[in-house]
Every structure is written in C-alpha cells, then in structure tokens.
Design goal:
By secondary structure, the chain is an all-alpha fold. It folds into 2 domains: about 100 residues, no CATH class; about 70 residues, Arc Repressor Mutant, subunit A. It contains 8 helices and 2 strands; from the N terminus they run ββαααααααα. Strands 1-2 form a two-stranded antiparallel sheet. Strand 1 and strand 2 form a beta hairpin. The longest helix is centred in the middle third of the chain and has 23 residues.
Length: about 200
Amino acid sequence: MSQVAPSNPRRTLEATAFEVLLDFLGGGDAGARAQRYREVRDRVEAFFRWRGLGDAAGLADETLDRVARRAQAGEVRTAAPYAFVAGVARMVALEAGRKERREVTLEDRPLAAPPPDEPEDELRLRALDACLEALVKAERDLVMRYYRDDGPSRIAGRQRLAESLGTTVEALRVRAFRLRARLETCVGNRLGEPK
C-alpha cells in the first residue's frame, strides 16, 4: 500500500486514511482538496506555535493523523470537520503540554539558605533565574522578548513579537501575564513566601 509522508519523517499515514481525511475536510477536485488540507494544517500548526509548544509541525501532523485514523475507523460523525480537528488539536496540545511539564517542572523547593551577607535582592534574582530556567524554552523566550524593551520602542517590539507568533497583541499580553504570574509564584515558593 502506498504511503504519504507527513512533514515528520518518523510517521507515515496510509494513503487510504489520507484520502478519507481529505474527504472529511471537504470534497471537490484534487487541487481544492489539497488546498483545504494545507489551510487546515497551517492553522493547526499556528495553534501549536501560539500555545508555545515545541514541535508545532510535528504536533500538527499528529493531530491530522489522529483525525484521519478516526475518520477511517468511522468514529467521526459530525458535520463540522473544522471544529472536530480543533478539538483533537486541543487534546494533542494538552498532552504535549503535560509531557513538557513533566520533563521540565517548576521547582517548588526553597533555595538553600543564603549566606548571611547576601542581600535579599540577590537571593530574589537567583530564584528568578532558576524559575526562568525551569520554563520550557519557548515560554522563556517569550517572557524575555516581551519584557526586553522599555520606553517608546516597547509597543513596536511587542507588535513585532505578536506578528512573529501569528497572534494579536492582546493575546500576547494575556500569555505574558500568565507566564509572569507563574514566575512570581515560583519565585515566592523558592523564597518560602506565603501564598
């Protein structure tokens, strides 16, 4: 049986499953079906990039592979294929996020007691550095880029950052706020501050 290779070379999808996926996304001639597939895949990949998950292309392939297998097995009974794909993408994102958090977790252990002459600011900076290192690289990069600029160039820098992530400035602001809250909690836990 012929194979269709997704962008991740480790996985392959049977041609019949791929055809079922194309039918599920919408009929039409071969060109229209290919275009629709590419649009859906690009949107799914952008979703994973926006969530800050590592291998967005691989996760998009995994999502569409799951949809194809379920459609081929006859498990999909919906008139809204895009909503179904979005639901599968959310599940894949949750699984990937859990896996990344298991691999790199924020440490809740307090730091060793500082030397008596170490100022509190130094201790706080050490805790912040440790918490930043515990973040997934994509999250750490986002925080560092978001809070890098100060002054008038900050607005333009955040606009460029949002565009590079394929999201809006408002959505970027929410993500940065949530990451900052996680960092503040982590630093507080490391310093033994009450919650």
